[in-house]
Amino acid sequence: MLETFLNATFTALGVGGAYLANGYFWNWLYRYRTSQDETFFFPAVDGWRLAIHRYRPDGAVRGLPVILCHGMGSNRYVFDSPGAPSLAVFLRERGRDVWVAELRGSGMSDRPGLFFSDVPYSWGFDDHLESDLPRIIGRVLELTGAPAAHWIGHSMGGMLIEAYLARHDAPPVASATAVGSPADFSKMSFQALLVLARLRTFLWLTPFPPMPFNGRLVLPIAHSMPRWLLGLFHPPNIDPRVSREIVALSSELLTSRKLWMDFGRFVADKKLASAEGSPYLENLSESRVPLMVVAGSCDMMAPADSVTAACLPGPHKGERRCLIMGRESGCAEEYGHMDLLVGLRSEQEVYPHLLEWIEKHDGRRDSLAE
Question: Considering the entire predicted model, what is its pTM?
Answer without folding.
Answer: 0.92
